[in-house]
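Troubleshooting: if your tokenizer reports a length mismatch, compare your output against this known-good record of 337 residues.
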Amino acid sequence: MANSFIPLRVFVKGGSRAAKSHLSSAGYSGQKVEKEALRPEALAAGFPPTPKENLVFQGGKTIADLTYTNFYIGGEAAWDPSDRKNIDAALNAAMNDEHLNNVMRQYFENKPITADFRPSTILDGPPPAAFSEGDAKALVASLFSDNALDSFDLANTVICFMLPKGTILTTDVAPHNPVAAIKHKPFIPAEDEDSSLQGLGGYHGSVRIGTNAVYYAIGVFSFRRDDGTDNGIVAFDAPWKNVVATFYHELCEARTDADVDDAIRTKKDQFCGWVSRSGNECGDFPMEEAGSNLGLVMKEVPLANGTGTVPIQFQYSNAVKGPEGPIKKLHKLHALA
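Known-good structure output:
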């Protein structure tokens, strides 16, 4: 069935230019209504229940047993080793946390979900001034042709591209950089181009190569620049924490709506996983509602095993009709009308 919406698929700051641009085209006209008692006491503080934003499964691909790996763009000199270590460790801890996964398991009939982190890789080449969707897709194709992805079960894997400090992320479908030799040159986004200077934090998608679908996510190194403006979405006291929260958002969405690019390309509902009638994926509406009050949904939360905290973004929960943090017990599932 053809759809009448464009899923959001991007991580944007609520109220930003990037958010307004994408929200103006997102939306879905038909959705089932879940019959379930509201539980406002379980909502993130500051949010009313919003049942109209509940996610509905459209029949598309989801990934219960996820594999992912991190590719750090820009060469070794572009990254503080402690940042890479913190990002890898905290993201792995978040994706495997029992209490965080208890929220996400409602989209998998409360069955167990897993996340297998494979060791990260630093990609050679100078830090690019800007990186686009076209660059990301070209890099996926290059890694595939170079056999760098041969060890992965691509049907259940998300390749995460980490952009270095200072690189501007855009949604331009055209590449900014030749893959073989990423050039560093001044970059000023066009006035109408969505970029990380306008509230864009990242996005996820896929590349079709023959019979394979290669899933990827890309995110900016979000930090406050010397001129007081933000590159990306700045919510925490250290940039590496912003990166972790960005990719927690993207991986949760990739596993619940893997083929979003195919849904957009073909305009067919059948490729969508869990989306709302507004076209929001699981991480989108919480950011939209929070707006500039990022602390309402982007928080450091305690790990279930008691080993510390991780910086994450609360995901949308049908069970409570809004953003929800980690929970000790699974929600009871209710049939959809």
